[in-house]
């Protein structure tokens, strides 16, 4: 399980307390940047904002939401992709189903392997759908500024292996500001308050 902080040192500070709470798990402290670049990173994470400042902690959580917490495609697309791959796996939790009266037909572009700035530019310039599906968030090798440009062009992302937030370790100050961040993170993830 990855322990994500703004820096590896920030993530390591939480390890002794998390090891007691999550006994039986091997915990790997990583910065968000390292997590996103590591193709073998675990998909289960504990978020550990550094606690140095409320502004910094909020910025970190927003970065995690924007860059790592992508949803799986809807069950219809999941089923189509599973059929192409010969898989019989059930869709992950979070895969949406169409509401009453909504069409189940939809289209997306499945991007296998690494997605680079060059391949993203080609896909964005084509007639391809604006919903792009990748295997993992680590498959997207695009800088933040280029991702924002793609978002402005209408590109939205889904992942076949979504990141699962096991818990969020926060400072008392961040816990008191929960109203400012609770809607950007999974509601079911437990929040653990640890003093500095």
Write a structural description.
- This protein is α/β, with parallel strands linked by helices.
- 35% of the residues lie in helices and 17% in strands.
- The chain has a 5-stranded parallel sheet with strand order 2-1-3-7-8.
Q: Tags for this entry?
A:
196 residues, alpha/beta, five-stranded parallel β-sheet, three-stranded parallel β-sheet
Mind sketching the topology for me?
Blueprint: E1 2-5, H1 8-21, E2 28-31, H2 32-37, E3 44-47, H3 54-67, H4 75-85, E4 109-111, H5 117-125, E5 131-134, H6 144-152, E6 156-159, E7 164-170, H7 172-176, E8 191-193
Parallel strand pairs: 1-2, 1-3, 3-7, 4-5, 5-6, 7-8
Give the radius of gyration: 18 Å
Q: H/E element string?
A: EHEHEHHEHEHEEHE
Compute the number of structural domains: 2
The rough form would be described as globular
Task: Measure the end-to-end span.
Answer: 22 Å
The helix tally amounts to: 7
- Can you give the helix content as a percent range? 25-40%
Q: Structural class, please? A: alpha/beta
The count of strands amounts to 8
Strand content is 15-25%
What number is the mean pLDDT? 89
Please give the order of strands in the largest beta sheet: 2-1-3-7-8
Could you name the ranges where pLDDT drops below 50 across 5 or more consecutive residues? 98-103
**Main beta-sheet strand count, sense and barrel state:** 5 strands, parallel
């Amino acid at each position: 399980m990855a322990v994500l902080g703004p820096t590896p040192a920030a993530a390591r500070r939480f390890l002794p307390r998390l090891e007691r709470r999550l006994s039986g798990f091997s915990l790997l402290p990583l910065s968000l940047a390292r997590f996103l670049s590591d193709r073998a990173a675990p998909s289960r994470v504990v978020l550990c904002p550094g606690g140095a400042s409320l502004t910094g902690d909020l910025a970190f959580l927003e970065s995690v939401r924007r860059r790592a917490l992508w949803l799986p495609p809807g069950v219809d697309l999941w089923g189509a992709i599973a059929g192409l791959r010969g898989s019989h796996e059930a869709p992950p939790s979070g895969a949406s189903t169409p509401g009453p009266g909504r069409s189940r037909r939809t289209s997306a572009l499945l991007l296998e392997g690494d997605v680079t700035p060059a391949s993203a530019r080609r896909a964005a310039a084509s007639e391809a759908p604006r919903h792009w599906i990748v295997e993992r968030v680590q498959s997207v090798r695009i800088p933040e500024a280029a991702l924002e440009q793609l978002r402005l062009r209408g590109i939205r992302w889904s992942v076949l292996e979504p990141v699962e937030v096991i818990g969020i370790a926060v400072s008392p100050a961040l816990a008191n500001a929960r109203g400012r961040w609770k809607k950007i993170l999974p509601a079911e993830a437990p929040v653990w308050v640890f003093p500095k």
